[in-house]
Amino acid sequence: MVIAVDGPAAAGKGTLARRLAESLGLPYLDTGLLYRAVGRRLLDQGADPADPVRAEAAARALRPEDLRRADLRGPAADHAASAVAALPAVRAALLDWQRDFGRAHGAVLDGRDIGTVVFPEAPVKLFVTASDEERARRRWLELRGRGVAAELAEVLAELRARDARDAGRAAAPMRPAGDALLLDTTALDAEAAFAAAWSLVRGKLGRDREDLRGKE
Ligand code: CDP
Ligand code: CDP
Question: Is residue 211 assigned to a domain?
Fold first, then answer.
């Protein structure tokens, strides 16, 4: 079973997807890390992350340990990730990785195009959103927690610019799949968001499925 969790930056996708994976006993893949690791490699090389030749080479050379680098978060990494993510050759190079991961044992994957491109046949697709201001506040709090001083207004502007790039690109733009369940987490903390998602998942898969019983 594959569960697709998509949505814009800092909507709470990862927090929710990780929790769903634990509850269902499925592996979890944060697909944003793939794009972040490729973007990071280009930054290391002093190259432009929008350089299609170098970015494709970096995507093809990606190794699992690259996803564990400590420097994949923060404004520079955010920007580089969304620049390489607009390149069709990079997306193509990362597609098999994501599909192999999901097909091996089932999985919960979060990203932008899981329900539309990577696993369009997934039985459950969630599209998680929250207001721009709330998402910026969450990201700003995260930065502060890591000791990074940032202006809330600047975080909001960068988040909006990245969402616009992700939704506006030609290759696998961010958008809800036609059969995605929408979950607005603006007024929900992580616990309440999980409870709401869990009830959507159960509703979609059928309340009496053996494998969902007793997992709450
Ligand atoms: O994966 P994505 O960028 O969509 O978001 P996340 O990393 O799951 O969540 C971003 C931040 O918001 C984290 O610090 C979460 O703890 C927090 N969060 C929240 O405040 N309320 C939620 N309903 C979900 C996440
Ligand atoms: O955590 P946050 O939502 O801020 O970002 P992320 O999920 O780590 O993704 C970083 C960037 O990778 C996004 O802004 C997208 O440009 C790209 N991405 C994508 O294009 N497709 C995916 N399935 C996942 C991420």
Answer: no
Q: Would you say residue 94 lies in a domain?
A: yes
pLDDT tens-place string over residues 82-110: 999 999 999 999 999 999 999 999 999 99
Do 113 and 88 fall into the same domain?
no
- Amino acid (1-letter code) at residue 208: D
Residue 18 CA: which ligand 1 atom is closest? Answer: 8
The answer to whether the CB of 12 is under 6 A from ligand 2 is: no
What is the total residue count of the chain? Answer: 216
SS3 3: strand
Query: Does residue 111's CB lie within 6 angstroms of at least one atom of ligand 2?
Result: yes
* Sign, CA torsion 49/51/57/60: positive
| Confidence check on the interface: ipTM exceeds 0.85, yes or no | yes
Q: Quick check: 128 and 13 in contact, CB under 8 A?
A: yes
Q: DSSP letter string over 76-110?
A: HHHHHHHHHHT-HHHHHHHHHHHHHHHHHH-EEEE
